[in-house]
Amino acid sequence: MIAIIDYGLGNILAFANVYKRLNIPVTVAKSAADLNGASKLILPGVGAFDHAMKLLQEAGMREPLDEMVLQQKVPVLGICVGMQILTQGSDEGILPGLGWIPGRVRAFRNTLGAEEMPLPHMGWNEVQPANGHPLFKGMENDARFYFLHSFYFECAQPQHAVARAFYGVDFSCAVQSENVFGVQFHPEKSHHFGVNLLKNFAEL
């Protein structure tokens, strides 16, 4: 069962509808109790880093998620701000992130090469996945996804970047460390590419 974490951010219904069309069991988790029995987790998010961390804590799911992800090794996919809060912190705010993948969220406007680019980075962009990465199975050569963001994930360890995109600067747009996955783009808005990625995650 895939549990979509509903802590007040992200298009929960869009993800649920994708999995229902694929006939993959899915549930929406609004509390710690709703996480029971989940074999995989989707952590969506939109908006600001600190706001996301506050809402996740207030929902009472921070500690149960730490247990599931770090101890039980349940696979989790963070999306957009849900990816950014996987890091240790962000230039956007002051709160610590989940710290599940070493790194920090950086601002395009403070990055040499991208400081003059229009913000947010919005629209379709090509994605270059690492060879053979399972999230991108079947679309390694032509992957395109929909982006909407002004900050990006800077991995502390280069091997954790499993896909890259270019917007004034080459940046990590998909990351992985063991059972923790994250994508900066919006698969729920990326047509068949996004459906394929969500299906691939379900089949890991």
From TrEMBL:
<keyword id="KW-0808">Transferase</keyword>
<keyword id="KW-0028">Amino-acid biosynthesis</keyword>
<dbReference type="Pfam" id="PF00117">
    <property type="entry name" value="GATase"/>
</dbReference>
<feature type="domain" description="Glutamine amidotransferase">
    <location>
        <begin position="4"/>
        <end position="201"/>
    </location>
</feature>
<keyword id="KW-0368">Histidine biosynthesis</keyword>
<comment type="function">
    <text>IGPS catalyzes the conversion of PRFAR and glutamine to IGP, AICAR and glutamate. The HisH subunit catalyzes the hydrolysis of glutamine to glutamate and ammonia as part of the synthesis of IGP and AICAR. The resulting ammonia molecule is channeled to the active site of HisF.</text>
</comment>
<comment type="pathway">
    <text>Amino-acid biosynthesis; L-histidine biosynthesis; L-histidine from 5-phospho-alpha-D-ribose 1-diphosphate: step 5/9.</text>
</comment>
<dbReference type="GO" id="GO:0004359">
    <property type="term" value="F:glutaminase activity"/>
</dbReference>
<protein>
    <recommendedName>
        <fullName>Imidazole glycerol phosphate synthase subunit HisH</fullName>
        <ecNumber>4.3.2.10</ecNumber>
        <ecNumber>3.5.1.2</ecNumber>
    </recommendedName>
</protein>
<dbReference type="GO" id="GO:0000107">
    <property type="term" value="F:imidazoleglycerol-phosphate synthase activity"/>
</dbReference>
<feature type="active site">
    <location>
        <position position="186"/>
    </location>
</feature>
<keyword id="KW-0963">Cytoplasm</keyword>
<dbReference type="GO" id="GO:0005737">
    <property type="term" value="C:cytoplasm"/>
</dbReference>
<feature type="active site">
    <location>
        <position position="188"/>
    </location>
</feature>
<keyword id="KW-0456">Lyase</keyword>
<keyword id="KW-0378">Hydrolase</keyword>
<dbReference type="InterPro" id="IPR010139">
    <property type="entry name" value="Imidazole-glycPsynth_HisH"/>
</dbReference>
<dbReference type="GO" id="GO:0016829">
    <property type="term" value="F:lyase activity"/>
</dbReference>
<dbReference type="InterPro" id="IPR029062">
    <property type="entry name" value="Class_I_gatase-like"/>
</dbReference>
<dbReference type="InterPro" id="IPR017926">
    <property type="entry name" value="GATASE"/>
</dbReference>
<keyword id="KW-0315">Glutamine amidotransferase</keyword>
<comment type="subunit">
    <text>Heterodimer of HisH and HisF.</text>
</comment>
<dbReference type="GO" id="GO:0000105">
    <property type="term" value="P:L-histidine biosynthetic process"/>
</dbReference>
<feature type="active site" description="Nucleophile">
    <location>
        <position position="80"/>
    </location>
</feature>
